[in-house]
Amino acid sequence: MAEHSVPADRTGTGDVPEEERARLATAWAAAHYFVSVGRQEWLFRTGMTAEDVERQVIASRYLFITAWNPPPGDTPRHLNDEAQERLHARLHTLGLAFHPALGCNNQGGMVEHGCLVLDATPEQADALAREFRQGGTLFWSADTPVRLRMMWPRPPQADGDPYTDWVGQ
């Protein structure tokens, strides 16, 4: 996502230390996310409603996901782009509409390309996150604040952000 994507193994815990999981959750919650619709980009953020986005692309549920792994700089850009193309193909196979999107840290750096997926179920969202080895996604229902969905168990060091859900086991 916007700070670093880190691979999660099939249990959702990966080899990421608890302190790093907590740090990443804080960074991802603070990041800025943008979806491209037509010739314009629309901002959305964790903990805030995404009214502008929802006016542009009407759906019941929204999922921001990327296939970029692991942290930028460790994997060549072309491999991350290939993974993103596999994600696009998977979304087409599932019949899910999506728009190009990206996440970046709140200073405008560390850009990762992704998708804003329309009307995925929570089960589909989690399955895609596991399939593409993501530590977290953004997932929310229309007219509600954007939520960060972490695929790991909540570490004791994690802040108490009310818009972060720790769904890992």
Description:
There is one protein chain. By secondary structure, the protein is α+β, with helices and mostly antiparallel strands. Helices cover 28% and strands 25% of the residues. It has four helices and eight strands; from the N terminus they run H-E-E-H-E-H-E-E-H-E-E-E. It has helices at residues 18-30, 51-56, 77-94, 122-131; strands at 32-37, 40-44, 61-65, 98-104, 112-118, 136-141, 147-150, 164-166. Strands 2-1-4-5-3-6-7-8 form an eight-stranded mixed sheet, with helices on both faces. Strand 1 (32-37) and strand 2 form a beta hairpin. The radius of gyration is 14 Å and the shape is globular. It starts with 17 loop residues before the first helix and ends with a strand. The model is unreliable at 7-13 (pLDDT under 50).
Descriptive terms for the model:
alpha+beta; globular; 4 helices
